[in-house]
Write a structure and sequence with these properties.
Mean pLDDT: 95
Strand content: 15-25%
Largest sheet: 7 strands, mixed
Distance between the termini: 51 Å
Pfam families: Aldedh (PF00171)
Organism: Aeromicrobium erythreum
Keywords: Oxidoreductase
Number of strands: 20
Family: Belongs to the aldehyde dehydrogenase family.
Protein name: Aldehyde dehydrogenase
CATH topology of the largest domain: Aldehyde Dehydrogenase, Chain A, domain 1
CATH architecture of the largest domain: 3-Layer(aba) Sandwich
């Protein structure tokens, strides 16, 4: 398998080279300037296999620690990252191009998730009593959640700390060891995370980073890990699933999105515009849960467009202190953005901010399009750039219908004073924020993931902890059974007793009581 296993299939940042010592390497470059950030080894199949073997050996120690002991290590790591947040922010800034304040925000959210996973794993995954029911009343029943063993994580470049940490921290808290393949565009961030965790656990390979290109990710898929968590494009997610199927390795897929923000006629227009602008433009639009489409009630459409156009004044991409948006991290994505914008304009859309000329070589200036045909790629495909497509709708029924018409179902937002939650519940997506933007990502107790071609499985919250475990059910006999049902010595009296109990429990009128 030759295609990359990162956010989008593309060539590596630079061609791999083989130095005199025979170790193949690749370079990490600053996307804003092209300057060299670091040189990293390309892990081949044998390197990946060795990393998984080391992780399996380490799992014998890490998995047998108590929840409290693992929590202590994770909370120490949390503190290390917090104290060195400036260092990690600078590295993320250099590898992704995002402004340092945005990098700090991402890391702060990730830190909060590490703490939540560490503190809640015991309650969520530890032994819990389960009612045995009248038929099995002599049994004490419990369920607990056991670690799978070794978890592979393939991370993206757009949020190189927050996104993979949703798998890494929760898998570690559940008792697994992790082999992490960071994106080829942000390998330094991945190595930094693994090295700081190694400091906490005395060098034991509980969390390892393996760097490389697409073939390295492919090797991790077929390496025999017990589960693989992937974040990237839908197309690459399908390749990941196919590769993992060779060993029947289960997967968590967090794929693409084409999220919409719905604005009702009673919405706070200024706040809705502010949210749409942030959701569409922050991180240069390179956010899987960001806003790409906006559906506005026709009664407030003109007011909304005027407001967001005014708010967009002065917002620009660049490297100077006044710029709020960084470069496009992956060079090949520039052509995708250009194509979507041009397609919309060719089909009759209007550019009220930016336009075709806003797409440069490294930077894309904010672009807002209105009256964009629903058949254009700016509506149907993930753009992953600082663009917004804003269309009027007759009512909220049309807004929901158009939102749900796409193949993706990751996230979204609704602005409405009276009907926000009602509208949110009708949207086919894994997550929706009401009168806010991307707020669900900052709540560690909520599950994170999508439906449809946005993927499946969940990270974050109790669901995220359980995602990296298997359920272990145990029954223990407390006293001899009144009915001897599971024996060849079962009598007619036992059978009549069972029929009587089942009839009393289930033969009467329907009831909603448990």
């Amino acid at each position: 398998m030759t295609s990359t296993f990162d956010r989008h299939p593309s060539p590596p940042p630079t061609s791999a080279s083989v130095p005199a010592d025979g170790v193949e390497t690749f370079e990490s470059l600053d996307p804003a300037t092209g300057d060299l950030v670091g040189v990293h080894p390309v892990a081949g199949p044998e390197d990946v296999a060795l990393a998984v073997e080391r992780a399996r050996d380490a799992a014998a120690w890490w998995g047998n620690l108590t929840f409290d002991e693992r929590a202590e290590h994770l909370l120490t790591w949390r503190s290390v990252i917090t104290r060195r947040i400036a260092q990690l922010s600078e590295l993320s800034h250099r590898e992704t191009g995002k402004p340092i304040p945005d990098a700090q925000l991402e890391i702060a959210l990730a830190i909060d998730h590490v703490a939540w996973a560490a503190k809640h794993a015991k309650k969520v995954l530890g032994p819990q009593r389960v009612a045995s029911g009248l038929v099995m009343a002599n049994q004490k029943s419990t369920v607990e959640y056991k670690p799978l063993g070794v978890v592979g994580v393939i991370g993206p470049w757009n949020y190189p700390v927050f996104t993979p940490m949703g798998s890494i921290a929760y898998a570690l808290a559940a008792g697994n060891t992790v082999v992490f393949k960071p994106s080829e565009y942000t390998p330094g961030v991945g190595v930094w995370l693994a090295e700081t965790f190694a400091e906490v656990v005395g060098g034991i390979p509980v969390l390892q980073a393996i760097t490389g290109l697409g073939a390295t990710g492919a090797a991790l898929c077929t390496s025999g890990v017990d589960k693989l968590a992937f974040t990237g494009s839908t197309a690459t997610g399908k390749k990941v699933m196919a590769a993992c199927a060779e060993r029947l390795t289960p997967v968590v897929i967090e794929a693409g999105g084409k999220d919409s923000l719905i604005v009702d006629e009673d919405a706070n227009i200024a706040k809705a515009a502010e949210a749409a602008l942030w959701g569409g433009m922050s991180n240069a639009g390179q956010t899987c849960i960001g806003t790409e489409r906006v559906y506005v009630h026709e009664k407030v459409f003109d007011a909304f467009v005027a407001e967001i156009t005014e708010q967009a004044k002065g917002l620009r991409a660049g490297t100077d202190a006044g710029a709020k948006i960084g470069p496009i991290t992956m060079p090949s994505q520039v052509d995708v953005i250009r194509g979507h914008v041009q397609d919309a304009l060719d089909r009759g859309a209007t550019a009220v901010v930016g336009g075709a000329d806003a797409v440069g070589e490294r930077f894309v200036q904010p672009t807002i399009l209105t009256h964009v045909p629903e058949t254009s790629t700016a509506i149907t495909e993930e753009t992953f750039g600082p663009t917004l497509a804003i269309n009027p709708v007759r009512d909220m029924d049309e807004a929901v219908r158009l939102t749900n018409a796409g193949k993706y179902g990751l996230a979204g937002a609704v602005f409405s004073k009276r009907h926000g939650v009602e509208i949110a519940r009708r949207i086919r997506s894994g997550m929706t924020s009401v009168n806010g933007i991307i707020t669900f990502a900052g709540v560690p107790g909520l599950p994170f993931g999508g439906v449809g071609e946005s993927g499946f499985g969940r990270i974050h919250g109790p669901d995220g902890l359980k995602e990296f475990t298997y359920a272990k059910a145990i029954t223990r006999q407390r006293y001899a059974p009144p009915l001897n049902l599971t024996s060849f010595k079962r009598t007619v009296k036992d059978e009549k007793g069972l029929n009587l109990i089942v009839t009393l429990l289930h033969g009467g009128k329907k009831t909603l009581k448990p």
